[in-house]
Amino acid sequence: MNVFCLGGAGKICSEAVRDLVEYSNVERITIGDPNTDAAHILIDELGDDRIEYADIDITDKKRAVALLEGYDIVMDGTTITLNEASTGSIAEAGCHGVNLNGFGAEYQFDAVFRGNDRIHVPGFGMTPGTTDMMVRFAADQMETVEIVRVSHGAFRPIAFSPSIAETTIVEYDPNLADRVVFEDGEFKQVPPFARERVIDLPEPYGSHPQWIIPHSETRTVYEYLKDKGIRLIETRGTWPPKNMMLVRALYEWGILHNEPIDVGGCEIGIMDAVSQYLQDSEVGTTTDLYGYALHVEVVGTKQGQKTQFTLTHTHPASNGSVVGWEGLRAYTRCVGIPLGIAVNLIAQGRSEGRGVVIPERAFEPAEVFRELEKRQILIHIAETALA
Fold first, then answer.
1. DSSP alpha helix (H) spans, the chain
2. Residue 15 in contact with residue 335, Cβ under 8 Å?
3. Over its length of 387 residues, how does the chain's per-residue pLDDT go in tens digits?
4. For residues 236 and 210, what is the distance between their CA atoms, to the nearest angstrom?
5. Cα–Cα distance measured from residue 230 to residue 240, given in angstroms and rounded to the nearest whole number
6. CATH code where residue 270 lies
7. Single residue among 91, 121, 151 that ends a domain in this structure
8. 35 and 115 both lie in a single domain
9. Cα distance between residue 251 and residue 123, in whole Å
10. Do 103 and 199 belong to one domain?
11. Cα 248 vs. chain centroid, distance in angstroms?
């Protein structure tokens, strides 16, 4: 198997590359990234003769397709706004594919992937991805499922990379149509900071208010559970408290609308200016606590008894006590490692389905959990009988 890693030199996707080097038997790993220097630094660091670099512009479709045609799987770590271009090229090139975001642009290429006898899994990191596995693990043990609440705390700087800054802008865009919940038979659009709920995350993260976010779990969980009586699906998230204070202020002051302003004769979106400032500043690229914390609740009936499953996840501390998990890497490894696992499962023939396949149907949760445990990422499961 040959794997092409789009955006493979980025802080998150490079962790997936490291995972492939350590845990997979793929024959060739190609890093395609506009940051040539970062790509070669990563190649030198890993020192594996399976790795090489390729220059690719994913927006140049003809050239991109020609380059990708020689690969079995494309691991797509590009930004949300490039998902349509990247998925279209992967489909036309006849490759399997996996990406991090799963924001929905991928599904239009379902017929192409099916025609090529290939699978593409949209959104397989921590959220979405691992969260989908947690929901399926619980739901598969139940006859009916009434409520699913997916929550996460992503403890990372607000703008440590352009793609992360873009994620912030997209998720809290006031006009975003796909910030929805599923409730009583329909998807309902909600504004930013809707339906606040305090979530108890595993230590050292603690309890935090969380709000509805536009992640794909809401729609893919519905698709997986629509025949089990599902009544409510909510997907929430939070970043460090300082980040949320800033985003809320940007929202309330209208800055997230990104209206154009004139600065010295140059027109620029006001949020684009804020984003660039954050990417260039220490305050935007550092935070006090690093890492990731998932929290998933599934309520339904198991053997006729109303039951709640609560699943959480933990990983090594970011304080330097565990080599390789220091600082920001406690966050980036949590996101990148599941992507690498998904690629490896496809390479080993351990995925299910053809076409664009939601995570819940693509992989067996127990297999994913075992692979995560090998990497020191642990899934904790609690089952409670309800009155």
1. 13-23, 36-46, 61-68, 83-93, 110-115, 130-139, 162-171, 217-225, 241-252, 270-279, 282-285, 329-347, 359-362, 365-374
2. yes
3. 999 999 999 999 999 999 999 999 999 999 999 999 999 999 999 999 999 999 999 999 999 999 999 999 999 999 888 999 999 999 999 999 999 989 889 999 999 999 999 999 999 999 999 999 999 999 999 999 999 999 999 999 999 888 888 888 889 999 899 999 999 999 999 999 999 999 999 999 999 999 999 999 999 999 999 999 999 999 999 999 999 999 999 999 999 999 999 999 999 999 999 999 999 999 999 999 999 999 999 999 999 999 999 999 999 999 999 999 999 999 999 999 999 999 999 999 999 999 999 999 999 999 999 999 999 999 999 999 998
4. 6
5. 31
6. 3.30.360.10
7. 121
8. yes
9. 26
10. no
11. 22
Radius of gyration of the chain measured on its C-alpha atoms: 20
Q: Is the dihedral of CA 23, 27, 31, 37 positive or negative?
A: positive
Q: Which residue range is the domain that position 37 belongs to?
A: 2-121
**231 class by beta-carbon count within 10 Å (0-12 exposed, 13-18 middle, 19+ buried):** middle
Name the amino acid, one letter, at 168: T
pLDDT per position as a tens digit, 129-164: 999 999 999 999 999 999 999 999 999 999 988 888
Residue 200's closest CA among 338, 135, 297, 319?
297
Total number of residues shown for the chain: 387
Cα–Cα distance, 86 to 161 (Å, whole number): 19
d(CA 110, CA 234): 26
Q: Is residue 349 part of a domain?
A: no
Structure tokens at 89: 């090229």
Q: How many distinct structural domains can be found in the chain? A: 2
Decide if 167 is inside a domain: yes
Q: What is the DSSP string of 74-125?
A: EEE---GGGHHHHHHHHHHHT-EEEES---SGGGGGHHHHHHTT-EEE---B
Residue 70 lies in a domain: yes
Pair 270, 189 in one domain: yes
Place of tokens 């509805």: 212
**CA 42 to chain CA mean position, Å:** 22
Examine the domain organization and report whether 115 and 144 are in the same domain.
no
368-379 pLDDT tens trace: 999 999 999 999
